[in-house]
Design goal:
The protein is of the alpha/beta class. It has two domains: 181 residues, Medium-chain alcohol dehydrogenases, catalytic domain (Quinone Oxidoreductase, Chain A, domain 1), CATH 3.90.180.10; 138 residues, Quinone Oxidoreductase, Chain A, domain 1, CATH 3.90.180.10. Helix content is 27%, strand content 26%. Helix 4 packs across helix 5 and helix 4 crosses helix 10.
Amino acid sequence: MKAVQFSSHGDRDVISYDDYPEPEPDRGAVVVDVRAAAVNHLDVWTRRGLPGVELELPHVPGSDAAGVVESVGAGVDQFTAGDRVAVSAGVSCGTCEFCRHGEASMCVDYHLLGEHVEGVHAERVAVPADNLVPVPEGVDWAVAGSTSLVFQTAWRMLVTRGEIRPGESILVLGASGGVGHAAVQIADYVGCEVFATASTDQKLAYAKELGADHTIDYEATNFADEIRERTGRRGVDVVVDHVGAATWRDSLRSLANGGRLLTCGATTGGNPETDVNRIFWNQLEVIGSTMATPGETSDVLSLVWDGTFEPRIRETLPMSETARAHELLENREGFGKVVLKPDSEW
């Protein structure tokens, strides 16, 4: 079979789509015939090399995929051959104190398919059965394969950790990206007033289509200044910042007294200069969030399957063009998710 892989870290030229050993379902695992898989910024960082993460090379990236169960290993009784499934990337131990209290994403041994271990950008993959979510008939493969990681991340961050409430004002940075466009929809669904930033008129128009009440072109104006002006210097109740170093101080400056800054990532760097005085004087909260529990994942994906939420697809490519998919993300081209399909599916 064929799989996307790299044998060294580096630029996009290290990516290949070559022969790879056929997967075998170990106990508790399922082999999935992949029909669609999404590319996330995580795949770009993994390819470049993450500090402290030592990968067995060659490495198959990819944390999002969907397809049909081909075979099951011993001990698997929740799935059978022919079932439609999507992959949820978070792997937990099931026995630590956090797992026992239902907080799988806080597991002391938490890791992700595609980041810490072999991923799912291949024709067929072996995945723990606990990492699969049923996909109803009629759900398009591109939707099923591009939803899990970003929607579960945004759902837990806003609904569980951030406890957003109807009537609150929320600023979503980078609304054209995977997590950003999911966060806009979730905040609108809860009944919040949504501000969204993006870099082009087209991206801003898409953000409005998905539920943003107000949009800000962050390349034309400073978004914190704009928020202060539009809210009568009050600020917003919540800021969703997965950008990191480049936006951190302005995110804090955009918050109203008692506001909450929610973060699940740092695409521009994880060590920002911060304003401690503003945090304590304005009694702000900084809340981190990672992925989601299985229950949270099921909750939000049910709203994708029934059409309440819509993962916007910016482009669909064959897996042999994965380098181009990475380029789309790195250059911030387009709005929404980039989807791969095995070349055999074209």
